Structures are given as C-alpha cells and as structure tokens.
Amino acid sequence: MTNKEIARTFQFLGNIMELHGENPFKIRSYQNAYIQLRKLPQPLAELPEEELAAIKGVGKAISGKIRELVETGRMETLERYRAQTPEGVQEMLAIKGFGPKKVRVVWKDLGVETIGELLYAVNENRLLELKGFGPKTQEELKRQLEYYQRSKDKFHWAALEAEAVAVRDHLRERLPGVQVEWAGAWRRGCNVVERIEVLVGAEGPLPEIPEGLVNSPLTIHQCAPEAFGSRWFRHTGSAEFLEAFVRAFPGKDFRDLATEEAVFQRAGLPHIAPELREGEWALERAIGGNLPVLIEASDIRGVVHAHSTYSDGLHSLREMAEAARSKGYSYLAITDHSQSAFYANGLKPERVREQWEEIDRLNREQTDFRILKGIESDILSDGSLDYEDELLKGFDLIIASIHSNLRMDREKATQRLIKAVENPYTSLLGHPTGRLLLSREGYPIDHQAVIDACAANGVGIELNANPYRLDLDWSWIPYALEKEVKISVNPDAHSTGGIDDIRFGCLSARKGGLSREACLNAWPVEEFLRRVKR
Questions:
Q1: At the N or C end, where does the chain have fewer CB atoms within 10 A?
Q2: How many angstroms separate the CA atoms of 246 and 255, rounded?
Q3: Mean pLDDT in residue range 199-224
Q4: Which domains does the chain show, CATH number per domain?
Q5: pTM of the model
Q6: pLDDT digits 0-9 by tens, 277-300
C-alpha cells in the first residue's frame, strides 16, 4: 500500500468512529496520523515498527495498526466499525462537506442508508426537519451529491499509473516480440479516467492477468499485428477527434496499417501526440501546419510553489532546496502559506522575515542553485492580498490563491479573482477554481474574464500539478495562449516527494498544447524572474 492509501485508511477510521460517537481523543489521533502519513516520502511499508512509532503523531498503537494494514491489507479495528455500519452510510462519509455528525443525523433520525435515499430525501426537503440543516445547507448537499454520483467509478490518472505499468509490462514479458501499448483515455493522459486500456497486436489466446496485479477496470483490445497502427489510432482518439478525422479525409482508407505513423503519413499530417487527440482543434492545427511542440517534464527548470515546515510542509527549507537540486532543477520558489491561513500555520510578518534571512544564508552557500522568496498569499474575501504593501514588495514572486469562503456564485468568485489579479504585487494566479478532482467541483468562474484580466495585468496562471487538482484545467490553456498569458506548471509540493508531481502537470499541460516557450518555469531563473515581475 502507498503512504497515501495508508493515510486515507486512518482518515476513514477517524470519520467512522466519529459517526459512532467514539472517544474524541482517539479520533483526533487518527486524523493527525492521516495528516502526517500522507506527506512522508519514505514508503511506510518498508519501515521497521520502531521507526514508524518514532514518526510525529504516530506512536506505538498506530504503528502497530500500520504494520497490520501493510501485512494483511486489513485493520481489525476498522473492520469492526465497518460491520456495524451500512455500506451506503460508509459511502456518505466520502461526500465533501458532509461530515460524520451530519451523516449520523440523517442515518439515525431519517433512516437514510444509501446515497440514492439521501438524494431523494433532499429533493423532498426532508432534511429541513433536522437540527443543523437549513435551506442553504440542503442545497449545497444536493450539489455535492450530484457531483459525487457523476464522479463515481472514475479514477485519477495518477492513481492507476502503477497498475497500468504492471499490466503492460506483464503482457510484454509473456508475449516477447508482440506490440503491447496503452490506449484510450489512459493513453491520452486524461486527468480522470474510467479504466486502463491496452492494445495487444497478437492473434490467439492471451496470457491471464494474475490476481492482484490490477484491481481497477481493465480493457484489453486485440488485433492482428499487420493492423496494429490503424487499431492503435482508433483505440486512442476520443469520439470527437475520430469523427473530425473522418470528415477531414472522406473516402481515404486508413485500415490495416501496421504503424500509427503510417496513418498520419497517409493523411499527409505530422504526428499528433495522443494527449492532443481530444477534440477538433489539434487536428485543425495539424492540417494548417502549426501544431505546437509540446512541453516535456524535462523542460522544467525551476520548482515553483512549494511549502516547508515554516507553514504546513513536511520538510525544512534546506531539505526542500536540496531535493529540488538533486532532481536536476536549478531554482526553487518557496511559497509557504500567508498569515490568514491559520489552519496551515500561515506566516506572520516576523516569520516571513525570518524565512528571508534563512534563504539569504542558503543562497550564499551555493552558486549553481537559487532559492526565491515567494509566498502563496490567500486572496481574502474582498479580493485583496494578505499582507501590507511594504511586505509584499519584498517577495520575488507572489502566488495569489483562494483557500477560504469557497461557496461563491460565478460573479462573486470571478470578481474576487480579478481584483487579486489587478493587485500590482500578484505574479501568478494559483489553482484558479480551487477544485479537487472527483472530490470537490470547485467554485464556478468566468474563465474567459479571468484570463483576460491576467493578460491585461501581466499575470501568469498556475497549472497546479497535484494530480488531485490539475487546475487550471487543460481545456483553457489554448485560450490563455491566444491571449499571451504564460502558464507555470507548479507541483504545490508539501514534501520533497511532492516535487515529482510536476510530471502530472506537464501531462495535463500537453493536452492543452503548452510549449516550453509558453511555460514560465521552463526558463532559467533570471528570465523567469523577469517574466513574473510586474
């Protein structure tokens, strides 16, 4: 099990215990374990129990449960509570903003035991009879339930990566000399996918997939080797892309071609990267001869948007810098949370200056790597930033992000962002919609108006590379590029391991046609600073 999977198990244990009204101190200890464990870089499964127990917020009891979970895949304490709780009630605990206390009320007072029953009760206004539920709460819950149902049985691309690699490698090993490649939405690098798809260029029976190698939906397509290219092309593109392709080349026969390159050669087109095969626009660009050269993860020169122990990061400033340098990057923009983010140990002005002094000391120690003085400033409810101008002007860059008061209508959210963009100290707009893929829809914004404001004020936009965010959504990158707004692919790293999320951001950026030249942190540090300075 991965660290995040182990951490989420403790989060669920804390929630289900709260649902049953158990000891609040135990519940808090499990919730704290969730916060600590999900950020750790070293695999928990490989640590001896004494090292596990020494981790902050763990201790002997929790380390024993970690070992039990790693070795058996189960936790007896959790299984005991599961047995007392209807499956549908357990599912309700996954609804964002619908905590254990509220779940308990609808379960015990209304007898609701499934998501469907809960949505029906909401539509019947039955929740208004309950303590703690008003019209606004009920309406918000309805929105969250509908989003949950739309997102059910879908997966983050990153969550299936290990299984996808394992399946492909297993088939290649068992079928030497046979083409085995990824296909479908998985190959296109979609942010969210429903299954892993693989194409095998072989006739006859295929080897079985061992039990436990893959636990997610899997589709294996099969074709004759001489038609592999045609079938790979067809099993990769979205329906919209394939329909546009057929319209563009009426009467041409693209069947039974051995390589995908042969398909594009017959069409007289350059190779269109799988990530671009979502809609018609990339095909039009290819026909017009102006297909973009897409960014690669190796193009990124600097780690922008990272947190340290000054706020809610797991590792010190020095550790974050050393990790970034060891991974081949030439600069790190440390952007801890600002003072209003009390939940994340946001920096008061005196701690900002303390961090600046440490950055200066560390920069004097080395000449081939640079740490930039940044901050992730909360955008306050009125759209202002989180410090006085005197402090703001001392930063090398400022990422302006919304973290609180997320329940906004489209007009309120848009105006709040635009005011922050118009602040002369804002360098980048961070995760513009605040979404959490498959978990939180994000506040609605007028993307076009926000991008226009960024263009007018010389502000870049972050593509937050955390695989649970990937925000700005790739579909808005073409418009941003049209308006000459630069994109920065940022890991939002809360640990040294989080830096590696940059590759997920680049995968999403490629879907929007981002090139190296249009990516802010693909430039050397001096050019990066020149482009983000207002």
A1: C
A2: 12
A3: 94
A4: 3-151 (1.10.150.110), 156-287 (3.30.460), 297-532 (3.20.20.140)
A5: 0.84
A6: 999 999 999 999 999 999 999 999
